[in-house]
Specification:
Helices cover about 45% and strands about 20% of the residues. It has about 280 residues and is of the alpha/beta class. It has a 6-stranded mixed sheet, sandwiched between helices. It has a 4-stranded antiparallel sheet with strand order 2-1-4-5.
């Protein structure tokens, strides 16, 4: 059973049809690279998968759960997705943006933990209710147990974030602010932040496009180091050598469709589509 199934995703902006029916599957632990010229629909596809854009038609399933079905949504009285439902759907995906999107007024550790802390508020409320029920009228004990629960949750979030920062080589920069970091370091913080909520699928949208050439390698090495038997990733990239070396599957998009798909060897060494051949020749 595929971890991710994308079926006939279409998206238009006004009269411009950006995605014209995108379908693919991804197994757990696989790395998919999406390549293609600017304007081919790569970023729009990622934004639809992460529910930052709503596709006009198609279906998205993760772990056999239907997260998005345009037809079913259109048949409802209201086709607006509730914000709580939207947040839950987004938790299946982690997205690393081109431009880092870090909060400049927060230090590195807070940037990485912020979403997890906000998410923990709901479970903390439930735990508080359970504590009040268990200790009934003992206010002193209730207050103590709630404080202990809060410290345990926050310490767990901080410990996880520090482990992730160590994984991306920034264990010593927890207290630094984005303005004190290089572009490559900021992107590595963004990767740690995306990992903090343990998404099923980690997505990268041109993760090195905003970096100077000398900083590109450090970010690509971190992404390469994330590849494992249970880390599923989708990478939109212009780094052809990287895509060839790290991917299990490669999709070449052109004019809003999947022009060609296959293994790295099939795409880079045995391209069939004239458009793909021309693209690779231009990129080489």
């Amino acid at each position: 059973m595929a971890l991710l199934t994308v079926s006939d995703i279409k998206k238009s902006f006004g009269a411009s049809e950006v995605l014209k029916g995108i379908s693919f599957t991804l197994e757990k632990g696989e790395v998919l690279s999406i390549i293609g010229s600017s304007g081919s629909g790569k970023t729009t596809l990622l934004r639809c998968l992460n529910f930052l854009e709503t596709a006009d038609s198609g279906k998205i399933c993760v772990n056999d759960e239907v997260l998005f079905d345009a037809e079913a949504l259109q048949n409802k009285r209201s086709n607006r997705v509730k914000s709580n439902d939207l947040r839950k759907k987004r938790l299946h995906f982690g997205l690393v943006f081109q431009g880092f999107n870090l909060f400049p007024h927060y230090n590195v550790l807070t940037n990485v933990t912020l979403a997890a802390r906000l998410l923990a508020k709901e479970s903390f409320k439930q735990e508080c209710a359970s504590i009040k029920s268990s200790y009934k009228g003992d206010r002193k004990q209730i207050k103590r147990q709630i404080q202990l629960a809060k410290e345990r949750i926050l310490n767990g979030i901080d410990s996880n974030a520090k482990a992730l920062l160590e994984k991306v080589g920034l264990a010593d920069r927890c207290d630094a602010y984005p303005c004190q970091l290089s572009g490559g370091q900021c992107q590595r913080v963004a990767i740690a932040r995306a990992l903090a909520l343990s998404p099923d699928i980690l997505c990268f949208d041109e993760p090195t496009s905003a970096l100077d050439p000398e900083l590109t390698g450090e970010v690509l090495n971190v992404i390469k180091g994330l590849k494992s038997s249970d880390r599923t990733m989708i990478i939109v990239t212009h780094e052809m050598d990287f895509a060839k070396n790290v991917s299990d599957k490669v999709i070449f998009m052109a004019d809003g469709i999947i022009e060609e798909a296959g293994t790295p060897r099939q795409i880079f060494d045995e391209p069939k589509s004239p458009k793909l051949q021309a693209f690779l020749q231009h990129e080489s």
